[in-house]
Amino acid sequence: MLPITILERNILELLNNSTFSLKEVSEKTGYDKHLCLKIMRDLIDKKLVIFDGIKFSTASSIPEETIKIINSPEVILSETMEYIETIIENKNSNLFKFKKITLSESDEIIFNAMLVNLEIFLKNSHLKKSASKDMRNQKVVFWGMGKMDSISKQMIGEIK
Amino acid sequence: MDIQQQTISRYKFIFPNDKLRDISKRTGINLTRIYRIMNGKLMKVSELEKFRIAINEMMKMNGEQEQILKSVEQAIIIHTPEELRKIITWIERKNSSKRYQDYVKKFEKNHKIA
After folding, report:
1. pTM for the complete prediction?
2. Is the pLDDT score of B65 beyond 60?
């Protein structure tokens, strides 16, 4: 069984060190109130969230093993893939850009420098806004580059 | 997993509560023979076919459903447990998204009626 869904994780992240009512969770995530209630029920069943009658908060005694599973590289990777797949499948927008290109050595150095700059920019930008817990306006950003040679080798199982 | 085992496990997945008598009734195979088959006796091709007909009738499968079952059977044979785990996770994620979508749709529909 799936340890956690993306929607559950988003709510769990929202509730981290905070308590919110159902209405507040719905406002902050942008999810329909009834969907929030369904997700909350699932999270309570999984013993990850508690409800005091008014507000929801993360359970104080989540076993170390559960946290380890939820944050395992396999689970994070599968969530990342789900995000990317959802964005690619979005027919109404042109969010995903993909190109097969040949780069000169100097252009590759320039491109790598751009990627480093982008990463630093995103990290700093996130730090400025992360305290607001405004999940509704969160963005999903992805970037990167792969070498065709190693991708092909990985596909045929030469690289694990 | 051989074809006989695959067919029996698929049958058990679709009809989890069937007793030997129910299996006999559904497939038209003699009860004693069902008992033997369920205890590992090799099936005849005609019996295998009867099991398949019972499964297909229940599932009323369309092309895609038939195809996914075939792909899964193939995946079980060719992939490592680690690779299978990735496939399972992918399917489970798709299923959970669908469950949420259906939940919202169902609620909206009920809400409109009310």
Report:
1. 0.70
2. yes
* Integer Cα distance of B11 and B31 in angstroms: 16
Count CB atoms within 10 A of the CB of residue B55. 19
Question: Which residues of chain B make contact with A5, given a CB cutoff of 8 A?
Answer: 93, 96-97, 100
Q: Which residues of B touch A74 (CB under 8 A)?
A: 85-86, 89
Closest CA to A143 of A69, A91, A62, A80: A80
Classify burial at B105, counting beta carbons within 10 Å of its beta carbon; exposed 0-12, middle 13-18, buried 19 or more: exposed
Q: How many CB pairs under 8 A join A and B?
A: 33
Taking an 8 Å cut-off on Cβ atoms, the answer to whether B103 and A2 are in contact is: no
Say what percent of chain A tops pLDDT 90.
54
- CA–CA distance, A130 with A118 (Å, rounded to integer): 18
